[in-house]
Design goal:
Blueprint (H helix, E strand, L loop, with lengths): L6 H21 L1 H22 L7 H20 L1 H18 L5 H25 L4 H26 L14 H23 L6 H28 L15 H24 L5
Length: 271
Amino acid sequence: MALPKDLLPRFLSASVLAPVVLVGLWLGGTVFTLMMAVIALVGVYEWTRICGAPRRDWPVWAALALTILSIATSATLGSGAGLITVLAGAVIFRVALFFAPLARNLTAFGLAYVTIAAIGLVWLRSIPEIGAELVVCLLVAVWATDIGAYFSGRLIGGPRIAPSISPNKTWAGLIGGMACSGLVMALLADVLFDIDWPLHVPVFGAGALLAVVAQVGDFGESALKRRFGVKDSGHIIPGHGGVLDRVDGVLSAAPVMAIVIFLARANGFEF
């Protein structure tokens, strides 16, 4: 069997990027916030380019400026203030583009979608003593979803979920991804947080929920790219395409993870 031509670039890119992400995650604080800001800026830029906005068009620069403002507000005044900033900015941005083509209007959604995910990740990492572990759980759950979906889809096959958007994704793959993510989350929660046995059930459910949300994010980006006839969101990562191509599942799962943890902590759940 011939190896994919992009295997070496993909391997080299992963070898460089993975340590950078892990170091940023381990250091936390300003370093992690800046890393998330860079990822968000690239992601928002890629989103605007997918929608066909010219590089020098004002909506591109406005979206990037609002992304910086929202994350800076989150870092200085708190995540709540950052969320209010990005949501208000997205609404104003959408109103400003009211008579613009649909392609431009979609940039308002992309601005909110990517930036809220970044703010959610920064908030998760900022939780004292367990922040890094929570982000690791999120990342591993999304990776487990992809792995479980791939192998169960290949082994079982069956009906496809949305062949016009993503021809290779099946219901069997989704179920396999949910099971894999749930099991991995329960195992990680046991190892990292030493939770009692009854809590493994809701943790498994949270992992399965993240799997569904991650798959929705994957479908969403695929639909966006098909709508505008784009193969990859960008070319910044050799062998991997753009940032959005690599983190689409994480972007959709991060806010859900943040909400789950927020509600758990608000109800007195101690890790």
